[in-house]
Amino acid sequence: MHDNVFDRYREGGSLLHRLSPIVKVVFTVVFIFSNAILPDGAWLAFGLAWLLLLAGSQISGLGIGFTAKRSFIALPFALAAVTAIFSLPGRTLAEWDFGRWHLVATDAGMLRFVSIMVRSWLSVQGAMLLIATTRFPDLIHAFEHLRMPRLLVTIIAFLYRYMFVLTDEVLRLMRSRQSRAASLPGRKAGGPIIWRARVAGNMVGQLFLRSYERSDRIYNAMLARGYEGQMRTLNRHEMAAQDWLFAALAAAALLSVQLVGRFPLR
Amino acid sequence: MLYVPAPLHIPDGFLSLTISLICWAITALAVTVAVRRTGSLGERQVPLMGIMAAFIFAAQMINFPVAGGTSGHLLGGALAAIVLGPWAGMLVMTAVIAVQGLLFQDGGLLVMGANILNMGLLTAAVGYGLYRIVEERSRKTKLIVAGVAAWLSVMAAALSTSLQLWLSGTARLDIVVPAMLGVHALIGLGEALITVAALAFIFRTRPDLLEQAEGAEGNGRGWAAAGLLIALAVVVLSPLASANPDGLERVAADLGFFDRGVSSPLNFLSGYTLPFLGEGVLSTILAGVVGVLVVAGVVFVAARLFRERTT
Amino acid sequence: MPVTHKKITPVPTPAMAGCEDGDVLKIEHLDFTYPDGHVALWDVSLDLCQGEKVALVGPNGAGKSTLMLHLNGIFRGDGIVRVGDLPLDKANLPLIRSMVGLVFQNPDDQLFSPTVFEDVAFGPLHMGLPEDEVRTRVDEALAQVHMSNFRERLSHHLSMGEKKRIAIATVLSMRPQILVLDEPSAGLDPRARRALINLLREMPITMLVSTHDMAMVRELFPRMVVMDEGRIVADGSTAELLEDEALLEAHGLERP
Question: Do A48 and A115 reside in the same domain of the chain?
């Protein structure tokens, strides 16, 4: 049931799907990097970066609006950035006194705030496109090729395999808690907060023990198949011509985004 | 919804490149050391850490209703470090935060170093460091300290997140610090309560597991010092940041932050006046200490309640 | 509650008369005590002939799983375990682990890799085989359980029946001499159970299968070994033992 909730991968055979995961990972990181170093208010460059995203969505066969739908996940964090409006010196737009804070909204602050939001909005969509067109196990292999420590790669692979299994266990625990959380009419259900926290804590403890015991069984299953402390994986990687081509085009595109951002046409 | 994004996962775009890279460097260093240290703990450790990462991931979904539609849940850094040891705890948290950022875009990629530093490394260091100090003490003491450590771990993560936002020119110091810490003082209570209850459960059922983790690491003093240091930073820096932001601003400017925008008026104000000698500072630090004591008291009472009901 | 064992007269079986092609597995006087003092195995002796399919039955806690964990040296008790011509000792351990294909009860513990391919390749890879050989073996093992088109699938997308089959493939890829299965039909719906039984029937390999599924035992396994309280209490032809109502009742078994 949580296939849809947890699996962000969208099946497909597009060029983007078939591209080497390493190229995709590197491109995504460079894309986000490029957004981060664009100056505040480089609207044309931001627009170009957005066009790149749209092109990516189109090529992937997911449809142009695909990444936009979930792209506002970072919105709550805007609350933290709102204060940027009042933190930069510049032409005063408005002033408020709010308790002990004297808030001066400036044009520079406004510019900074909007730029932060745009950067974040673009970057999150880049990551979404990556995850929608790349199976997570292939991503894990890409990390291995990109020299992430082997132990960490292995932990992430286990995490990916077992988060589904353990989430199921959590759901079962929560359902059994729910089904026992009865209350008499007119009385508040759930008991005092300490008690509720203790129930949750017991569930966490329960889950810990089950997980611990499961790791014993998995260890045995690994031993039975010849594991002796070294994880070995088979994970060939060859760059095809189209991978190089894509990498070159993508690099050129991001370079022009930077050029436009730094030397605005006037 | 199954997956609830936690408020500490910074998205891409909110931190400057400089801060992102510095945080990545610190994180990469710590992870490298952690890989070395845990690699020698034996082959059994590999599947254990993998499953424990999935455990933390799943445990973060267990919530309990607090009030007004909000709910308390677990971040897990302190708990992971206490049950697995600090290095293994850090690796486990690193994997969890990496998957959350990659798979759910909960937290960015370029800023992932910062997220791991805040939620994985600092929390594990505070959690384990303080717990380690009382390792030989009674079970009750251990539970109380674990609770305080769990609360402080969330506060440390919140403080460090605020400082990064401020140093990146994203947020104003005197607003972001009290706001983040205020919210997380409450969230941290949930963390403390769940951590204590979970540990009490493990103490009741499989105390041997906790003893294993305790015996696993050699350098207790170093961890204790690190834990105390971070705790002290939370207690001293938080009130300072809200009461005397100018002082911190100046230090940051002297250190060469604020690469864009904020620079001009602040850079001229260098020179070595002692910035922290404002009048109200001592009293605000005292307030911080009192706050910690109050929380410790709450956790103490909670721990006693847990014990009474379980025996 | 202590169960008093009756003196058991072993039913003569072809196996006990000695194997024609030699025995694949030989266990002699195996004892095992858990660190907490619980005696899990007590004087267990068992021979398996080439190509034999043997059921291992008995109540939970009888020691079936503990015995299985001894067959490839995950547990080491006192006594002799031989696989083929090799005595089980530290030097032979890697080889023996590839000869005994042990499949655990819960496929979620057995399938610990993100994809089916990685899991089936795990055994051959850790045997140190070259890459091409590993790929050949993965394809071969998946074909044997009729799951060839599941190669690139993600493990958490599989149904229970599919997981059980892939779990068997994860050891078949090591080309074992004996297949040791723990509760293969547990948790399967009738259709998946039927498919699994058909699969086990068509595989020519020597098999030791622990199960509570007595209908499957009658259908599939000519020989049956009954364990209780860490001991082997009966070993003989399934058809005959299933007629021994006193024996079945004493060890909590039911005739299908």
Answer: yes
